[in-house]
Amino acid sequence: MRKELKEIQQLVDKVHGWLSPHEGITLYNLAKNCTGKGVVVEIGSWQGKSTIWLAKGSKKGNNVKIYAIDPHTGSSEHKEAYGKVWTFNNFKKNINKANVEDIVVPILKYSDKAAKTFNKPVELIFIDGSHEYDLVKLDFELWFPKVIDGGIIAFHDTVGWEGPKRLVKEIILKSRNFKSVKFADYSITYGRKVKKNSVFDRIRGRYVLILKNLYEIPYNLNLPKPFIYFMKVVVRSLQ
Ligand SMILES: C[S@@+](CC[C@H](N)C(=O)[O-])C[C@H]1O[C@@H](n2cnc3c(N)ncnc32)[C@H](O)[C@@H]1O
Predict the structure, then answer these.
(1) Considering the entire predicted model, what is its pTM?
(2) Considering only CA atoms, which residue is closest to atom 14 of ligand 1?
(3) Given this model, what pLDDT does residue 151 score?
(4) Domain assignment of residue 7, yes or no
(5) Which atom from ligand 1 is nearest to the alpha carbon of 156?
(6) Which residues of the chain have pLDDT under 50?
(7) What digits encode the pLDDT tens for the residues 69-96?
(8) Could you say which DSSP state residue 37 is in?
(9) Whose CA is nearest to atom 5 of ligand 1?
């Protein structure tokens, strides 16, 4: 791993969250490649782990602003696990510590409320808010129209969580509106928005769907970690 990425990893290792280092690097690269034709939006920031990866990538690229949308009161599973949740103080502290406060704009709202007034074109959106199927689908429906042609939509937790897992199969991997789709280890699925994709793009979508389904077998069977790791390497090398 490059020295700069290692340094970011060391920094985000101290931030509570669920994003793996490889997923962080995926976000870093996606944000780095943003041209500035639109902004970056994140739905679901928690304490800032993914926000920092996105912001660091953007700073390495074209300094595109990151709009980090989260009411900071947690999702249903967090409230169940921790009781009352308030993550904004830690989020702010972590963003400042990472020196990215100049390009991160927090929006303390639910994504559907934020969508009503958000009128900037979006070049990259990372969706990691509610993981319930109906709500993650609503996120897609409200935000997809704001994404520019050629922009990227990425979802987190598309393996272990039924909502995003089902949705990405329906709206990205089998879609006519995405090209260059990818399943990036270990649980991010993303694609580039197009008006209408080509036959080749659709074949690629089905191919990635097959690889993703294969990856899910050892995961669903709860096989020992080496099997899952092996599948991860196979899936990575075949895309
Ligand atoms: C899994 S955590 C996000 C983790 C974060 N991306 C990271 O890498 O650490 C989910 C977050 O989504 C937020 N959330 C839940 N429903 C939301 C919604 N409808 N709109 C925006 N944020 C939401 C929760 O408050 C919580 O902080």
Answers:
(1) 0.96
(2) 129
(3) 98
(4) yes
(5) 6
(6) none
(7) 999 999 988 888 888 999 999 999 999 9
(8) S
(9) 45
Both tokens of 210, joined, read 């097959």
120 CA → ligand 1 middle, Å: 21
Tell me if 166 is assigned to some domain. Answer: no
Q: Are 189 and 156 in contact (CB under 8 A)?
A: no
The residue to mutate among 15, 28, 45, having the most atoms of ligand 1 within 8 angstroms of its beta carbon, is 45
| CATH code for position 61 | 3.40.50.150
- Give the tokens for residue 110: 């639910």
Say how many Å lie between the CA of residue 42 and the centre of ligand 1: 9
Tally of domains within the chain:
1
Range of the domain at 31: 3-156
Residue 176 resides in a domain: no
| pLDDT (0 to 100) of residue 225 | 86
Domain assignment of residue 39, yes or no: yes
Return d(Cα 188, Cα 55) in angstroms, integer: 18
Predicted confidence at residue 67, as pLDDT, reads 98
Cα–ligand 1 centroid distance for 110 (angstroms): 9
Q: Please report, as a single letter, which amino acid is at residue 188.
A: I
Residue among 13, 23, 43, 141 to mutate when testing ligand 1 (max atoms within 8 A of CB): 43
Residue 12, CB-side half-sphere exposure with 13 Å CA sphere: 29
- Cβ 108 vs Cβ 88: under 8 Å: yes
Predicted local confidence at residue 63, as pLDDT: 98
